[in-house]
Design goal:
Radius of gyration: 28 Å
CATH class of the largest domain: Alpha Beta
Strand order of the largest sheet: 3-2-4-1-5
Distance between the termini: 65 Å
Number of domains: 4
Length: about 525
């Protein structure tokens, strides 16, 4: 039953959504849906930037920017922002790291909404107290070790932890989890020891959990602060104390083939899925950053004329997976009967393009051994007979090498028809410098246009320090033109790109071999 009134819809609504830790796949299904629908997204720095990419590009993004030690926007002002945006009739998502009600000040944010009669909902998130521990292989409870879990804030601005509280924590036993306590770590360990906790109690500090930069320091309680200082542990991090920390050998996150790698995937939004999933399955942290968008060509006159005389053409040439999808969309929108195209032979630049066409019942007659315009053009020049007409449906900014090679064939009539256009994307609410601040961050490019789009959006990035995985020579050429350090896949396939990343992960010094 929907209890929203007309008045509710007019004044908008606020959803306090827990984003979970930084892994973009750990937000709830409901949280992701609300992000996709939101008009306004209010977020802070504990939210992984990748999660913001679930939102609409035309939504308003308000960064309330809380960083450890810095509070540029007071809590009272954040409360007013939520009230103002909701009263203007918008769907507002207040996106908070972890869970809104676990030291997230969520209750404070809804007090004003409640007072003003603004509708709101709370969408729980996975707190770092359990998720970060799980990614480190530490169960927070165990039948033989800990039957209780106690979550404590160690934030100094919260007043710290009183001596009697330490005594209670030690007496209760179980597993202790301290959030927001990196700067207070010496006080935490000292307080527990003074309250009588065994100095040899297993303990751990878990830094940047659920990300590629995740680190873990395990030590007896009496040594934990010193070890964390030696390892230069910084926030965000959580502190665990209890016998369960002795089970840290159950770790799994670091053991996957691409663990520790952060890879920026730059494909168009609708083409992200398969590559991102393949990388995640191998253990990489994936940051989806669609550097380009594919739009139908504004001027399709050449293609429309060719389609009107399609019975005179013998070959259809498609040069990308996006082109294959746009071609089928073009036909559907014009209600073209596929039977009228059955005489066409199909040439595809690679297996990715061909596989998309296969889902529509079209099977490629020609695919070159090397998936690029040069080799496709050469092969077509060999196969096309004199007098046959060839329709190339591709991006308006298509690579000229395909045409150059194909025109070597005798008496071939070629129509090069713009099917779609490439637009470069920008995201004012994303700071790529945050992602590249981690030294094992790599960019992955599947076309020269994704390189150019990335460069257009990479404000503040030193391009000469970018390590790029490229799908082919033309892509590599584009990346090198901007000074990037590049490696090229042996074959122009997603599988080959991932194999290349694995080679780097194994320690093969391939970067030096390319210069």
């Amino acid at each position: 039953m929907n209890c929203e009134t007309k008045k509710d819809r007019q004044q908008g609504k606020v959803w306090l959504v827990g984003a979970g830790p930084s892994d973009v796949e750990l937000i709830t299904v409901k949280g992701k849906r609300l992000l996709e629908e939101a008009d306004v997204i209010v977020f802070d720095r504990l939210v992984g930037q990748g999660i913001l990419m679930y939102g609409r590009k035309d939504a308003e993004y308000i960064d309330v920017g809380k960083r450890s030690g810095h509070h540029p926007i007071p809590q009272e002002e954040i409360n007013e922002i939520l009230l103002r945006e909701a009263k203007s009739g918008k769907k507002v998502v207040r996106l908070k790291g972890g869970d809104p009600f676990v030291f997230g000040r969520g209750a404070e944010e809804i007090e004003l909404l409640l007072k003003e009669g603004v509708p709101y909902e709370i969408v729980p998130g996975i707190t770092s107290a359990i998720s970060v521990a799980a990614y480190a292989g530490i169960p927070v409870t165990h039948r033989n070790m800990a039957s209780s879990l106690h979550i404590v804030t160690a934030h100094k601005k919260a007043g710290g932890i009183a001596e009697k509280e330490f005594e209670s924590l030690v007496t209760m036993g179980g597993t202790l989890v301290f959030l927001m306590g990196v700067t207070s770590l010496p006080e935490v360990t000292e307080g527990l020891l003074k309250a009588g906790m065994n100095p040899n109690t297993p303990s751990a500090v878990l830094e940047k959990g659920t990300t590629a930069a995740q680190r873990k320091v395990c030590a007896p309680l009496s040594e934990l602060a010193g070890r964390a200082k030696e390892e230069q542990i910084t926030s965000p991090a959580i502190i665990l104390v209890g016998d369960v920390c002795s089970l840290s050998e159950m770790s799994w996150y670091e053991k996957r083939p691409l663990s520790g790698m952060r890879i920026i995937v730059t494909r168009p939004r609708e083409r992200q899925g398969r590559l991102s999933q393949m990388l995640r399955e191998e253990g990489a942290e994936v940051f989806e950053f669609p550097a380009i968008a594919v739009r139908p060509a504004q001027n399709t006159e050449v293609l429309e004329k060719a389609l009107a005389k399609i019975d005179t053409y013998r070959w259809l040439v498609l040069t990308s997976p996006s082109g294959a999808e746009q071609w089928m969309k073009f036909l559907r929108e014009r209600r073209i009967d596929m039977r009228t195209l059955s005489h066409l032979k199909l040439a595809c630049i690679g297996t990715g393009t061909a596989s998309i066409m296969e889902t529509h019942g079209w099977y490629a007659d020609l695919i070159p051994d090397r998936y690029d315009g040069v080799h496709l053009g050469r092969l077509l020049a060999e196969k096309v007979k004199a007098g046959e007409k060839v329709l190339i449906a591709r991006a308006a900014q298509g690579n000229p090498q395909l045409l150059e090679e194909l025109m070597r064939a005798e008496q071939v009539q070629i129509t090069d028809a713009p099917l779609y256009e490439i637009e470069e994307e920008r995201y004012a609410y994303i700071d790529l410098r945050r992602e590249f601040s981690y030294e094992r961050t790599y960019a992955m490019f599947t076309s020269a246009s994704t390189v150019r789009g990335f460069v257009n959006a990479a404000e503040g990035i030193e391009l000469g320090q970018v390590h790029a995985f490229c799908i082919g020579k033309q892509t590599e050429k584009a990346a090198r033109a901007f000074g990037m350090k590049t490696l090229t896949a042996k074959e122009a396939t997603l599988e080959s790109l991932i194999a290349l990343a694995k080679s780097v992960q194994k320690g093969e010094n391939l970067w030096e071999q390319t210069f």
